Amino acid sequence: MLSWVVIFLIIALIAGFLGFTGVFVAAVEIARILFFIFLILFVISLVYYLISGRKPPVP
């Protein structure tokens, strides 16, 4: 999910550089929303593993 944030951030930077302000604003908002969703899911996962006492899975 973090890769989507980076992709939309790159799209926003390119659109802003080329002067497409509408695309720039939309891409920034999508990247911001995805970042906060990622952050919330990370915190929930961290709290879950701390409360349950289980170790996170090793990739």
UniProtKB/TrEMBL annotation:
Keyword Transcription regulation among UniProt keywords: no
One cellular component term from this protein's GO annotations in UniProt: plasma membrane
Keyword check for RNA-binding: no
Pfam assignment, any one: DUF1328
Transmembrane segments: 6-26, 33-51
UniProt KW keywords: Cell membrane, Membrane, Transmembrane, Transmembrane helix
Domain of life, source organism: Bacteria
Family according to the record: Belongs to the UPF0391 family.
HAMAP family found in the cross-reference section: UPF0391
Protein name per the record: UPF0391 membrane protein HT99x_003020
Organism of derivation: Candidatus Berkiella aquae
Organism taxonomic ancestry: Bacteria, Pseudomonadati, Pseudomonadota, Gammaproteobacteria, Candidatus Berkiellales
